[in-house]
Design goal:
This protein is of the alpha/beta class and 290 residues long. It contains nine helices and twelve strands.
């Protein structure tokens, strides 16, 4: 829809989320911006354990800038000057997750801007960041729009197009546990892990349980076995049961295993895991999920 010259340079703005936000952004760059000469991925997530593609330079935005509007504006202006980017891709939130891009409008108004969008609780975001429409070249949709998102894009008269995004699981060698076993996948806090562990035990109390997380989770106790930070395909293929929350990335990764995937959604400020869980239930044999 919006052609990008191969010799172009793009600033890909993915600030405000955690590892999942960065992971999704890298997938988009790998699959749709691989021919662009240079992509500067801007993130404030510092625990970065992924080797980016050759055409990507990761730019770490200091978290302290979130509390200093003037410093943020200076930083962003200098970043644009140093990178000489000619196109701005914005991940999910048109003005930034906290409306911070409004502080730098004079520096980005001349740049072509593309929004990568997914289903969010739009009324909450607009209530926080409502202002004049951004001048967008277009919107790529990773999943359906919230009805208010659609109405907003219609009012902005901006063109929209679906964007296919694949999450192939890494192969890798792993020593498979003795069957039967189950696997829980999550990147959230300790409280959410405790909820998922309890839910998994209710779903399949007879299984030996493993978990995939960025790092070991001590609150789970010795009965739970850490299976590493990456969901290796063989580990999931041979599991009898999979449990996760309803984040965008994980739901995409586990589509091939829908028949054994149990989902426990969590409340988020803008993401709507309960909507995504409902979509999953429509095509899942587990209609009694709670």
């Amino acid at each position: 829809m919006w052609s990008t010259p191969e010799n172009d340079s793009i600033l890909y703005y993915a600030v405000g989320g955690g590892w999942g936000h960065v992971h999704r952004s890298l997938r988009i760059i790998e699959q749709h911006l691989f021919s662009v000469a240079r992509v500067y991925l801007v993130t404030n997530h510092h625990r970065f354990g992924y080797v980016p593609p050759a055409n990507v330079e990761v730019v770490y935005m200091p978290p302290s800038l979130a509390y200093d509007a003037d410093a943020y504006a200076r930083y962003f202006r200098e970043l644009l000057q140093l990178t000489a980017c000619r196109t701005l891709w914005i991940d999910v939130f048109p003005w930034g997750v906290q409306g911070e891009l409004l502080r730098v409008l004079p520096f980005i108004e001349h740049l072509p801007k593309v929004l990568v969008s997914r289903y969010v609780q739009w009324e909450r975001y607009m209530g926080h960041c409502a202002c004049k429409p951004p001048a967008l070249e277009g919107v790529y949709l990773l999943e359906e729009c919230h009805p208010l998102q659609k109405a907003t894009f219609d009012a902005w008269k901006v063109e929209r197009q679906p964007l296919t995004l694949n999450f192939p699981l890494p192969e890798g060698d792993c020593s498979l546990p003795e069957q039967p076993y189950g696997v829980v996948l999550h990147t959230g806090n300790h409280h959410e892990w405790q909820c998922l562990a309890a839910y998994a035990g209710q779903r399949a109390p007879h299984l030996r349980w493993y978990y995939v997380a960025p790092r070991p989770c001590p609150v789970l106790g010795s009965a739970w076995h850490y299976a590493g930070s990456r969901p290796l395909r063989l580990l999931l293929e041979n599991a009898s049961c999979l449990v996760s929350a309803a984040g965008f990335n994980t739901m995409k990764e586990l589509v091939p295993f829908r028949e054994k995937h149990h989902v426990l959604p969590f409340a988020r400020k803008y993401d709507n895991q309960f909507w995504r869980w409902g979509r999953h239930r429509l095509n899942s044999p587990f209609h009694d999920n709670a």
